[in-house]
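Why does residue order matter? Because the sequence determines the fold. Keep that principle in mind as you read this record.
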Amino acid sequence: MIIVMGHAKLGAGEIDRLGAEMEAQITATRAEDGCLAYGFARDVLDPDTLIITERWRDNAAITAHFASPHMATFNAVLAKANVLEVSVKAYENGEERVLMGG
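Structure:
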């Protein structure tokens, strides 16, 4: 399993402006083969920062995701957005254990 974590700092109002595009990206990505989880959330302490969380079955699934038409569309949207900072990293994880809840 591959875990992807990251953040993106956007200019004031950009997250609200891009809401429909982010929703479309999340919906399409969650339907991909090999996508176990995919989401964006606002940082509670900085509402102009998105927290990015993803879980993928394997590297082949991530490669297919980056080659998908909806990813190309979303990257074109981001290229025109006021993105101030972005950092996204992948972590390979051989085991999963519950820390809270189910």
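The first strand starts at residue 2 and ends at 10.
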